Amino acid sequence: MVCIAAFIILAIIGVFVAIISIFKPKVGKAYWKMFKKAWGCLWKKVRLQKCETGFKDDVKNTLLSRVIIKHPKWVKPLSIIIEVISVIIVIIAVWAILTAIKSLLALWALGSCNVTKPSACSLGAEVCSIDESEPTNPIEATGRWFTEWGEIFEAIPDKFKTYNGEDYDFNYITVPGDNADKPVAVDIFDPGCSVCMISYRNQSNSGFFDKYNVRLVPFAIQDADGNYKFKNSETVVRYIFATEQVKSDVAIKLLDRIFMDKNSEGISYQNKFNEDYSSEEAAMKLESWLGELGLDEGEIKQVREITTYPEITDKMNENRDIIENQLKVKGIPTMIFDGKRHTGLWESM
Fold it and tell me: Does the first or last residue of the chain, that is N or C, have fewer Cβ atoms within 10 Å of its Cβ?
């Protein structure tokens, strides 16, 4: 283990030695001689051959040379400590390499290098992440580490899969202009997600809604404890589904107000729903919009009643099952169109 640990350390400091050797060539030559010995030892270990004991002794003697003279009794325990530290260095290096491989595979297969908490990965697509609960103890953390490998390998075949939005039994609302000649596209969003808002605006401006029959799937992100990521997303989703049952062409207009409009102070309504409104105030605002959009008092009352129906809860749960368990989505917005799945901000094209 000493020679392997030495190789790892020498490989790490190699960059710095390369710079120093520009000014002091002797340092570079001495380093290169030691590195070749370490590599030769490692290569023999890989081929299950015995490593040269001379190199191991060279490393130990270098580290213990001063101790031998002043404190000879310390040599044996320090030698054991060096062996233990070498094992720890090797374990940490192997863990780091495996973690790096796992992160790269997760980024490719799932769109995020952090499987449990996609929002923690700065390399992934710009999304509102669907995070899982963090492990609370080392045993859970270890189990979670292996579970993540399983999720990654399970997701790899999906990279080569052809997606068809019509294959998934979503509960959705449609964009006006539905035409049988246009292909179907699915757009999963959370009303409280700022990335979804920007993506929706980009789609509207780029003609995405004109090119496809878009099925808009409202989805309120929840954590492992059932808490909603955005304060009033559940209320908005319930009103969208309830309005769709009473007056289907008005449901999308509620979404337009949240994603496209601002109040008199120039503040986005999405921001108001996320930061300022209580659930009661959010419901009142949505109902006031329904009145402005042509619903009478009886219809507004009907919408209010429908939001409490188990049927609406069932619709939300059905969508959650498809999104989290069937599609295994880690972040939204997520779109399905042209046989592919796209996760993250939709850029204008």
Answer: C
